[in-house]
Amino acid sequence: MKLYTRTGDEGKTSVIGGGRVRKDDARVEAYGTVDELNSYVGQAVAVLLKAPEEKLQQLAERLILVQHELFDCGSDLCYAAPSPDKMKVSAEMTERLEVWIDESEAQTPPIERFILPGGSESAALLHVCRTVCRRAERRVVTLGVDQPYPDEVRRFLNRLSDFFFAAARLANAALSVPDIEYERGAAVFRRREP
Predict the structure, then answer these.
(1) Is-contact 112 187, C-beta < 8 A?
(2) pLDDT, average across residues 84-103
(3) Does the domain at residues 12-174 carry the CATH identifier 3.60.20.30?
(4) Nearest to 90 by CA among 145, 44, 155, 9
(5) What is the pLDDT of residues 17-33, one digit of tens each?
(6) What pTM did the predictor assign?
(7) DSSP state of 15
(8) Cβ count within 10 A of residue 82
(9) pLDDT number for residue 194
(10) What CA–CA distance (Å, rounded) separates 88 from 111?
(11) What are the sequence ranges of the domains in the chain?
(12) How many Cβ atoms are within 10 Å of 185's Cβ, its own excluded?
């Protein structure tokens, strides 16, 4: 099998059930940004797997599952006319992220203010994932202005960006690296009671 097909040389690509569209079509931008996010997640996994801390190994395992689910997101976004029976992203996937967020939050010190992205290398990469995930979510919202898309993908991406934030804080905590608060910010966070 050859890796190149030459079918995209004219700046168009195929979407499922929609023929050929420009490579800058909103649908292609959406699933392309999800693909970009997946690459950053892979980079974060590579760094986390080098760390000896058990919490970071578990986090790497979770991120590998997220990578598979990001492929599911991309697949669902490829449909010009999404059909519920063909979609892979489910509400259960989004709900599992909420459980992971709560577990991570319980293992980190409370925060009151916004924090600067960074700290450890692992946390810095997870913050990059968070911001690219937010961009992917925005691309999906833009897609929805003129074209149909599966709603659960948007919800999943929204929750996933929250998970990346919690995971970045967990990585710093596991490595005993403090988060750095944005010093000119007001107290905006309140820890929820279980």
Answers:
(1) yes
(2) 96
(3) no
(4) 155
(5) 778 776 778 889 999 99
(6) 0.91
(7) E
(8) 19
(9) 52
(10) 35
(11) 12-174
(12) 13
Q: What tens digit of pLDDT does each residue of 26-54 get?
A: 889 999 999 999 999 999 999 999 988 88
CA atoms within 13 A on the CB side of 159: 22
Query: Counting beta carbons within 10 angstroms of the beta carbon of residue 6, is it exposed (0 to 12), middle (13 to 18) or buried (19 or more)?
Result: exposed
**Which two structure tokens, joined as six digits, stand for 41?**
């997640």
**Beta pairing partners, 12:** 22
- Pairwise CA distance, residues 70 & 57, whole Å: 20
Report residue 54 as tokens: 């058990």
Q: How big is the CA angle at 145 (ends 135 and 126), to the nearest 5 degrees?
A: 15
Other C-beta atoms closer than 10 Å to the C-beta of 190 total 9
Long-range contacts of 137-143 (CB under 8 A, 24+ apart): 137/161, 139/26, 139/29, 139/30, 139/33, 140/30, 140/77, 142/26, 142/29, 142/30, 143/26, 143/27, 143/29, 143/30, 143/77
Residue 110 one-letter amino acid: P
